[in-house]
Amino acid sequence: MRRPGDLVRRTAVAMAAVATVAVVVAALVSLGLVRSADQSQARKALHSKADLVAAVLDASRPADIGPSLRVVRRQDTPAAWLTTTGRLVGDPLARAAYTRLPQGDRDQEVSRTLRIDGRQVLVEVRPLASGQVVVFAQRTDLAIGQTLRLFDRVLLALVVGLVVAVGVAVPFARRLAAPLRRTAAAAHRLASGERSVRVTPEGPAELAEVGASLNVLAEALEHSERRQRQFLMSVSHELRTPLTAIRGFGEALADGVATGPAVPAAGATIVAESSRLERLVSDLLDLARVGADDFRYDVGPFDLGGLVDDAGQVWRRRCEAEGLAFGLDRPPGAVVVVGDPARVRQALDGLAENALRVTPAGQPLVLALRVAGGEAVLEVRDGGPGLTEEDRAVAFERSALHDRYRGVRPVGTGLGLALVHELVTGMGGRVEADVAPEGGACFRVRLPLAARGQAPVSTQ
Question: Order of strands, edge to edge, in the sheet holding 110-116?
Fold first, then answer.
């Protein structure tokens, strides 16, 4: 784990590095420019001096040239001259420069830059009217006074820049890190189980977004755990009821309290409550498996119309046994959709079971199929008590309707509609609750139609 001071230290180092790079780059550019300017200025100065000295010497007697050049040499300007006899006298640097010049440049006015002993040397040659030649030479590294002064200033600027960068970076980084530290502390409290944790979004937009996201996460966890507790309480109640009945009648049989004609009734009650308990456990397992990674959908094209016909035969008999009017409404021919036929049948049976439970005798239960907007629309409608607008908004949430109508109307395990929603959406379909023309509830499943030419697979 990174230590809390890492951000402050790293920010300070980063800003100091940026300041250093900026100063160094500026220094390199400036030094190059100033050095070039120094050399140019030195060239101009040497050129002017050569012109001036040459003009003075041309106006002097030949015998005065030597003494005059010695005066120039004493002014820190290396000079040499070629006498009329061809003898080269004077400063060694100027003589060396003259000898390195091309033969054609030795008897005319030239300005050159030569490299002598690994150093650059400025050379000015001036021929005199007397036939003599004057040579002036100056090393460029002696003409860097401004460059050295600039270098000192660059060093000073670098030190000042580092001090300012660190002085600004540390408070800035601490201020930047403060919201992160508070958010991290809140996240640790959230991880330890405290769900009332909230942070005030502050700092730059990105940091404020982190704080807001943590608040959203805390609210989502709080809501999820509250729903989970409610769900567990509901399931516990549903489990306790059949278990209590099974235990009571089982004890009655074991103790001999239920005898004679009461034995079959006790057995029937135990069987009914066991079936109810089995349905609840089965729904719980199915709902848990739907969210698992290894839950499979065998998705492919199949004839939804044939599946509805098969389901209609089963539910027609169930409705007749309960005294309900069964209806089947579907277009002729095949309706080929893409999905898992086994899961679609499971969802259809779950919706029909739910409708059968709440629909009073004499009222209709309808399975309907139609094609609309490139989708197959499968409906399970009933003439039961129906659902309000608020009911339809939460119809597919676990135990939402179960908790709302327990003791008011017949209810199931509270998991059936949630399981239907998971099954249908897992296949890429949609499911919705609405008002049925028969006066009760309408649950509508939408599945995508297969592409033209796709042959349906068998659902048997």
Answer: 88-90, 79-82, 133-139, 119-127, 110-116
pLDDT tens column, 118-164? 888 888 888 887 777 888 887 776 655 555 565 666 667 777 777 77
User: 121: part of which helix (H) or strand (E)?
Assistant: strand 119-127
Angle at the Cα of 41 (from 39 to 42), degrees rounded to 5? 60
Counting Cα atoms < 13 Å in the Cβ hemisphere of 162 gives 10
Greatest Cα-to-Cα distance within the chain, rounded to the nearest angstrom = 160
Helices (H) and strands (E) in the chain, counts: 11, 12
pTM for this predicted structure: 0.48
Question: pLDDT tens digit string along 386-405?
Answer: 888 998 888 888 777 777 77
Spatial CA neighbour of 380 closest among 331, 449, 308: 308
| DSSP state at residue 297 | -
For each of the domains in the chain, give its residue range(s) and CATH number, in order of start.
6-146 (3.30.450), 219-290 (1.10.287.130), 300-448 (3.30.565.10)
- In one-letter notation, the amino acid at residue 207 is L
> What angle do the packed helices 6-59 and 145-191 form, to 10 degrees?
170
Count, residues in the chain: 460
Q: Which residues are paired to 367 by β-bridges? A: 328, 380
As a whole number of angstroms, the distance between CA 274 and CA 280 comes to 10
